[in-house]
């Protein structure tokens, strides 16, 4: 469980996440305000709740205030600190404007699909703007 984080799947334009420079698919949110978001499960007895951070509640409590996130980037294999300000007035969905999913970042590189080339300008990938 010590390699679990929230993978950034999408970042909305002009959102707090966009302004902070979060990168879709490559970034994982792993900590906030000097606390890991997901516990390792150590010292948790059978049947007890894991002491994970309630991310929606954390964001709600900190609306309009800086939250320091620990972000792991799987491309650079480095972590960085990113300041995000949860805001419900930025004009889009959510407090950060980011779509996330629980994922294991230790093996995420093995599950990544890379588009190397598109053979035809009429191919679905080309029409979707992937080239």
What is the CA-CA span between the terminal residues?
36 Å
SSE order: EHEEHEEEH
How is the quaternary structure best described?
Answer: single chain
Roughly what percent helix? 10-25%
Biggest sheet, in brief?
Answer: 6 strands, antiparallel
The SS-based structural class is: alpha+beta
Q: So how many helices? A: 3
The tally of beta strands, per DSSP, is 6
| Percent of sequence in beta strands | 25-35%
- What is the overall silhouette? globular
Overall pLDDT score: 84
Folded structure, characterized:
With 131 residues, the protein is of the alpha+beta class. 11% of the residues lie in helices and 28% in strands. It is built from three helices and six strands. Strands 1, 2, 3, 4, 5 and 6 form a six-stranded antiparallel beta sheet that branches. The longest helix has 7 residues, at 55-61. The protein is globular and about 50 Å long. The termini are far apart.
Helix-strand blueprint:
Blueprint: E1 4-11, H1 16-19, E2 27-32, E3 35-36, H2 55-61, E4 67-73, E5 78-84, E6 98-104, H3 124-127
Antiparallel strand pairs: 1-2, 1-6, 2-3, 2-4, 4-5
Keywords:
single chain; 131 residues; alpha+beta; 6-stranded antiparallel β-sheet
In summary, what is this structure?
This protein has 131 residues and is of the alpha+beta class. It contains three helices and six strands, in the order E-H-E-E-H-E-E-E-H.
